[in-house]
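User: I'll paste a sequence; please echo it back and then give the predicted structure.

Assistant: Echoing your sequence first, then the prediction.
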Amino acid sequence: MPTITREQVKVPADVLPDRRETYVDNFMKATRGSGHLMLFACDQKIEHLNKDFYDGGDEIDLADCEPEHLFKIARQGVCGVMAGQRGLIARYAADYPEINYLVKMNSKTNLVRTSQEDPYSPLLHGLDAVLAMRDAGVNVVGLGYTIYLGSEYEATMMAEAGELIAEAHAEGLLVVLWIYPRGKAVTAEKDPDLIAGAAGVALCLGADFVKVNPPKPIGEDTRTPAEALAVATKASGRTGLVCAGGSTVDAETFLTQLYDQIHVGGAVGNATGRNIHQRSLDEAVRLTKAISSITLADYEVADALAVFNGEKDFTL
């Protein structure tokens, strides 16, 4: 398995001297000592409401209707961090103290459409509330924040994110930015140039990692999504780029896309939610192991698929 040493962690200059070791600790925890990020995204109860967890049919396993399902997956599977809102984490963290938590600092529902108003996702609380939870013993290693690039409110969100990153780094916490081009000014949310632009914005704001949607080449652009992603990963510089997992697809398709994002596109991991938690506990746990075998241990797709199918185990 590829590993990095503590000395290889590039600590940002805005981390206070007495918090540098804390930052390195959190980086090594979040990346499981690999430098790559396997982020289990569990923020959709606000973002997409309950439809991502229960559909009344066979598409989503019934276990996903119970919020604790998320924590069981994170405990039994192989993940770098579990991302969720402060309240969600606060309700369950005492029973799951070993999980590395990333607190999602802002969220909005999808009820107000872009056709009604450009998106704005304000902070749900201040950093002090998270630090108090960390001081009480919750294993918080980082923060997350969403920016809708192209929204008429982008300046406000960028300012909030910039200040949050500076404050978080001063405390030794990592920050992952979710950046999605969205709003009336945006005609193609997955345009490769916009995705690369989002990656560059995350770098300039000082983020440690940025979560973007995989680009979708259009028109005469004959590149594959992974080839187009390579431009975005260069634009992100020392901010590690990971791709959103999107809607649930079959495991082989998902693992193949992930492998290409890393090996062709230069991504440093993944940020996956629905593709994991909409499955039964056993299947979801096996998928986290398969994903991590590619993201953290550089497995080939066939070997990762064997992990998912239960033919091979994967642990760290």
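The beta strands are 37-41, 81-85, 101-104, 140-149, 174-181, 209-212, 240-244, 269-272. The chain has twelve helices and eight strands.
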